[in-house]
Design goal:
The complex is a heterodimer of chains A (304) and B (316). With 304 residues, chain A is mainly α. Chain A contains 13 helices and 2 strands. In chain A, strands 1-2 form a two-stranded antiparallel sheet. In chain A, strand 1 and strand 2 form a beta hairpin. The longest helix of chain A is centred in the middle third of the chain and has 37 residues, at 84-120. Chain A is elongated and about 75 Å long. Chain B has 316 residues and is an all-alpha fold. Chain B has one domain (87-310): MetI-like (MetI-like fold), CATH 1.10.3720.10. Chain B contains 15 helices and no strands. Chain B is globular, with a radius of gyration of 24 Å. The chains are: A mainly alpha (304), B mainly alpha (316). Chain A binds chain B through residues 130-131, 133-135, 137-142, 145-147, 149-152, 226, 229-230, 233-234, 246, 249, 252-253, 256-257, 260, 263-264, 266-267, 270-272, 274-275, 278, and chain B through 14-15, 18-19, 22-23, 26-27, 30-32, 137-138, 140-143, 145-147, 149-150, 152-153, 157, 252, 254-256, 258-259, 262-263, 270, 273-274, 277-278, 280, 285, 289, 292-293, 296-297.
Chain lengths: 304, 316
């Protein structure tokens, strides 16, 4: 998939790859840029937590418990006198790394299954898709709860469970897109030139189903962040005293009236995180879909 | 269409068998012994053996599954190891509560999304359209348990208008209409906000799509009342994808309400599964997941059916 682009009249036509074009298109999506910047900031804060966080996230100081936000404690303190802001920054490490690993897991498991199912069809397709169907009839959160609850509340099990929940969705999307491009002329051409199935699938089909995969992965990421928080909230994820957005909200329930900052801070950061990923996803979807490309003029007129 | 429906219905038991097999394998492949959890560490070997025998846990895995599925076909989901009650009677207690919570959340979603979606589509780029966009964007981003805490803080603690708990209690059922509805309000909003966002966005875009159709211009040219045009010609057509999505989302609700049940102490399906997982109560886990999956499957089939009934152009 490449688009012929006229460059200056003197030089001949140059072929620009679709991903380069998409990358050029992306910065025009204002919300997506905001999302990207926010997400990078949140990730940086989590990565640099030991240097940024003003306090130790697990250090108990009962003399300073349930203090409202102040200059000393930007987001107040919790019932053990721990700094909420510091816990938020450290909690991001778990949430975001779970998000990233679930994305990787879903990709590694879901994409090959979807490609195989869509390309080979027939019995393989039937078998794989019935399995996917069965997985998808489980309510995702309940399946994750069951898996983590049975395997033991451990962050690796959380990742495994969320990956297993998300991979079938991705597999189904990849299968659909593969079916759509399987009969395209360039695939027939590649086959006629003697390319084997591995080469056709990896270098011709995968390239052309990448856009829906990328968009779905942003959805997987935000779903994983929320699901990790939900599991921790229910007591099945991160265990105390380790900081965790979901777990801290669960603790904050007991101090709703006395210390509302305790639940508002994690709620806010989860929202911000999901919001920025969603914006990013919207931008990627538009950038990867040539039909949604807008010219500068349309943008300045406020169309679209 | 009836043939299509028949084909779909035939597939249901097949998918359910796969689901039950998966649940069975997951429960048996993971660590944790229900008998040990139930009886504690200090029990005699004989007592534990007797209990294992009682629940067929001493048999081989294929035997266990065969015995269980044989009973399921006859409508018997076995007995809870923990509570020693039949799973079906536990289900009869829990399912109505979960359904009421799901229905109240869906009622909230419909009450908000229909007017908001229609007005936003009719008045594009107006303040109400921006409000609609803001609401949907926020609704997609906020986790339902976070929203629940915010609502509790504002409406129960600060304003003291609404109770936090009370769903499924005897007083709630025996009281008047308001006593019945009151405890559902906060959980319904917290649970239904995501669905509201999904449905509002869908209705707005399908409404915009319909409004640009030729038959809309024809209707206006005929001199029909604007209200008639909007309700009879536009809304009716825009509702087709909306109704389908609402049915699918309703099927989803029972599965996602576990966090809400946890916060508001609702004796529903989600909290029952939560407890069953902690106690390794295999019959309850297996029975409840089977019912939740079946519910979800039927909601999806209903969605397809609505689609065909509302839109005569659709042929399966």
């Amino acid at each position: 998939m490449a688009v012929v682009q006229p460059s200056s009249p003197a030089t001949p036509y140059r072929i620009t790859g679709s991903f380069v074009l998409a990358a050029r298109q992306f910065p025009r999506h204002r919300a997506a840029m905001v999302g990207l910047v926010l997400l990078v900031l949140i990730c940086l804060a989590a990565a640099l937590a030991p240097w940024i966080a003003p306090y130790d996230p697990v250090q108990i100081k009962l003399s300073a418990k349930l203090k409202p936000p102040s200059f000393e404690h930007l987001l107040g303190t919790d019932h053990f006198g721990r700094d909420v802001f510091s816990r938020l920054i450290y909690g991001g490490r778990t949430s975001l790394s779970v998000g990233v690993l679930v994305v990787v897991f879903a990709f590694v498991l879901g994409v090959p299954l979807g490609l195989a199912s869509g390309y080979f069809g027939g019995r393989i397709d039937n078998l794989l898709m019935r399995l996917v169907d069965a997985f998808l009839t489980f309510p995702p959160l309940l399946l994750a709860v069951a898996l983590v609850g049975l395997l033991g509340p451990d962050i690796q099990n959380v990742m495994l469970a969320l990956g297993l929940v998300q991979a079938p969705v991705l597999a189904r999307i990849v299968r659909g897109s593969t079916l759509a491009v399987r009969e395209d002329v360039y695939v027939t051409a590649a086959r006629a030139l003697g390319a084997g199935p591995a080469r056709i699938v990896l270098s011709h089909i995968l390239r052309n189903v990448m856009s829906p995969i990328v968009v779905q992965l942003t959805i997987v990421f935000s779903a994983a962040v929320v699901a990790e928080a939900s599991l921790s909230f229910l007591g099945f994820g991160t265990q105390p005293p380790q900081p965790s957005w979901g777990r801290d909200m669960s603790e904050a329930r007991r101090f709703l009236g006395d210390a509302p900052w305790m639940f508002m801070a994690p709620t806010g950061i989860i929202m911000l995180c999901v919001l920025s990923i969603n914006f990013l996803g919207d931008g990627l979807r538009d950038a990867l879909d040539p039909r949604a490309w807008r010219t500068r003029r349309q943008l300045s007129k406020g169309e679209g | 269409m009836w043939r299509y429906l028949g084909r779909r219905l035939i597939q249901v038991p097949l998918v359910l068998v796969v689901v039950s097999l998966m649940t069975f394998l997951i429960t048996r492949a993971t660590p944790g012994d229900p008998v040990q959890i139930m009886l504690g560490m200090q029990t005699s070997k004989e007592a534990a053996e007797a209990m294992r025998k009682e629940f067929n846990l001493d048999r081989s895995l294929p035997e266990q599954y065969a015995l269980w599925i044989g009973k399921v076909v006859q409508g018997d989901l076995g007995r809870s190891i923990r509570l020693n009650d039949p799973v079906t009677s536990l289900l009869a207690e829990r399912l109505p509560v979960s359904l009421q919570l799901a229905a109240s959340a869906m009622a909230f979603a419909l009450l908000v999304s229909i007017p908001l979606g229609v007005i936003a589509a009719l008045r594009r780029n107006s303040w109400i359209d921006y409000l609609c966009t803001g609401y949907t964007v926020a609704g997609f981003a906020i986790p339902n348990f976070g929203l629940a805490l915010i609502l509790i803080y504002v409406f129960s603690i600060q304003l003291d208008w609404l109770p936090i708990t009370g769903i499924g209690t005897a007083e709630q059922v025996s009281g008047g209409l308001w006593t019945y509805i009151k405890p559902f309000i906060i959980p319904a909003i917290a649970l239904g906000t995501l669905q509201t966002a999904i449905l509002t966005r869908l209705l707005r875009s399908s409404m915009i799509d319909v409004l640009s159709q030729d038959y809309m211009r024809t209707a206006r040219a005929k001199g029909l009342l604007p209200a008639t045009i909007i309700v009879v010609h536009a809304l009716k057509n825009a509702m087709i994808p909306f109704v389908t999505m609402a049915a699918i989302q309703f099927g989803y609700m029972i599965g996602i309400q576990v966090t809400i049940e946890y916060i508001f102490a609702v004796p529903g399906m989600g909290s029952a599964v939560l407890n069953a997982v902690v106690n390794r109560d295999f019959p309850v886990i297996q029975g409840f997941t089977l019912v939740i999956s079946a519910f979800f499957l039927f909601a999806n089939i209903m969605a397809d059916l609505f689609y065909a009934l509302l839109d005569p152009r659709i042929r399966y």
